[in-house]
Amino acid sequence: MGNEKLITCCGLYCGDCYGYHAKIASLAGKLDGELDNANFKKHADHFSALPFFNEFKNYDSFVDVLKTLKRLTCEGCRNRGGSPFCEIRRCCREKEIMGCWECGEFKSCKKLNFLNAVHGDAHIKNLDILKEKGAENFVNGDRYW
Question: From what superkingdom does this record's organism come (predicted)?
């Protein structure tokens, strides 16, 4: 059973997102802790001098990425999550609508374009489903990510 409160304004579903479940962030935190407890930086510096462990020269960059992964968490767009600067959410609030599916302009709306790089047209397909079948059918049916 899905939760209608997890439908984003733009037509995605928070319950399908790695940020909402925070599994990647949690695993990154555990790995960061383990590496820190093992004082692995010292070993990485040693390993980087060996020709078959050349990649350890990038250890500091790896740790930076790991620390960034720890921040990949979100409580959901309708629960103080997501970007505080989200134009889509702001637009929906101004129009006093639940989401873009309630707006007749969503198929041509430029505010949705930034999602294309990661989601292709999944959000547009989802908005069509929401418009045609409603929120309950959307959360309990097939969705695109």
Answer: Archaea
